[in-house]
């Protein structure tokens, strides 16, 4: 199944998506709630809702303004180095343990929302990534059972301010600027994709300019291995986000370097999931607009 959380002609809620049509499940049952946590927790009977979907109206998917699939995840954990060619272009050694870091909620935005280039640096980079949404929590999860803990897959653009990422051995500043991490819009359940979402084409682009192009089969740490590894040190909880790292082609490794510029629209696409598109805006323009309101 495919879902989008957002606001449209049918109101705000969780929409079931089929092709270019969407049905508001929240309007059918208030227990669904206003993000995916109602379905993840089992508060609402999904099979019953799917059978009843035609009791409500269908809407064009394009008419829905996306919101974050999970509004307040307990954790947002990201892999920094998970494609060999990306590791090499960054000048790093291939790790024997995944490079993990965390993102804050203020850095996260839904698909379609403006991605903010900060006023203190022009070095806003793009990173196309597969995003995993945890459905069933746990600790010390075996790799063999790890995929049973996945609710769905979506898209992520790990917007990185490279100048600040390089200021310290810790990547936290460069990875956590406000409004730099788009997620969504569509979440796809595992039954609609290859096991572990492997073998899917992953790409980023601005207009006709292809920035990155690879396949999720190139990941060093698979989804299952990543879940198992993280659960060694931390209890995974329903609704947690896990970002699976980016392939080669990022802007800081190009000659000349290629930063995202205000006025552009950056897209991340993964085969079988969809497209996450976001306009780039300058922070100073955002501030000017806010001051005028």
Automatic annotation (TrEMBL):
GO terms for molecular function: isomerase activity; metal ion binding. This is 2-keto-4-pentenoate hydratase/2-oxohepta-3-ene-1,7-dioic acid hydratase (Catechol pathway). Gene3D superfamilies: Fumarylacetoacetase-like, C-terminal domain. It comes from Roseibium alexandrii (strain DSM 17067 / NCIMB 14079 / DFL-11) (Labrenzia alexandrii). Keywords: Metal-binding. Residues 75-281 form the Fumarylacetoacetase-like C-terminal domain. GO terms for biological process: carboxylic acid metabolic process. It holds the Pfam family FAA_hydrolase. Belongs to the FAH family.
